[in-house]
Amino acid sequence: MLFQPDKLTVRAGEQVRFLLRNNGKIEHEFVVATIEDNLRHLKAMEANPDMRHEERNARRLQPKQTGEILWRFTKGGTFDFSCLIPGHREAGMFGTILVE
What we know:
mainly beta; Immunoglobulin-like; six-stranded mixed sheet; two-stranded antiparallel sheet; 1 helix; globular
C-alpha cells in the first residue's frame, strides 16, 4: 500500500491536477489536507470506517477506478495526502507536498 510518487514540491499559487488510479484489489482513497487535519480525520474514520469522501480535496476509488482532484495551493508549507481508510495510512499510504 503506497502512493507513487509519495513526495511532491509545488509553488505557492500553483494549480495541480492529481490523476488518481487505484491499481489495488481493494478500495482506497486520496485526501489532501494538513497533516493535523488528516490525522484528526483518521480518528473519525476509525469510528466510522464506511465514511465516504467525495469532497473537493478527497476521492474514494474502487479497484481499477480512476479519478482526479484539481487543487490550487494558495499557501506555502507542508501538506499531507493520505488514504484514511483504517489501517491504510499505517501501512504506508501517505505522502508529503512541500509548497514553496
